[in-house]
Amino acid sequence: MPKFLIQSTYTTEGTKGLLSEGASGRRAAVEQIVTGLGGKVEAMYFAFGEDDLVLIVDFPDPVSMAAVSLTVKASGALHTRATPLLTLDEIDEASRRKVSFRAPGK
Fold first, then answer.
1. Which InterPro entries match (predicted)?
2. What would the pLDDT profile of 47-78 be if each residue is shown by its tens digit?
């Protein structure tokens, strides 16, 4: 199952919502969305600095991740970015594939 790193920053309105319902309320909301699409929350951490929330989630396919991303961003409560995570075996497989590439100017 594809794995994704999600890094999020709350907007002012999103922070007000977090203060109102607490971290456990947000965890429940995240679990509901992810499991509702057949996925799993592997880790969820709140942070301070550039990111307010960091998650590692599994989804059955990238389209599910895109659906969540679009819905969350449309709410205006968070700014998010999702990064696909690859296993060591996937990188080993990628390194064995031949790619025809010419660098610019060569």
1. GYD/TTHA1554
2. 998 999 999 999 999 999 999 999 999 999 99
Please say whether the beta carbons of 80 and 69 come within 8 A.
yes
Using H for helix, E for strand and C for coil, what is the string for 49-67? CCCCEEEEEECCCHHHHHH
pTM score, whole prediction: 0.87
Strand order in the sheet with 53-58: 40-46, 53-58, 3-10, 78-85
Tell me the three state secondary structure of residue 44: strand
Residues 57, 82, 34, 45, Cα dihedral to 10°: 60
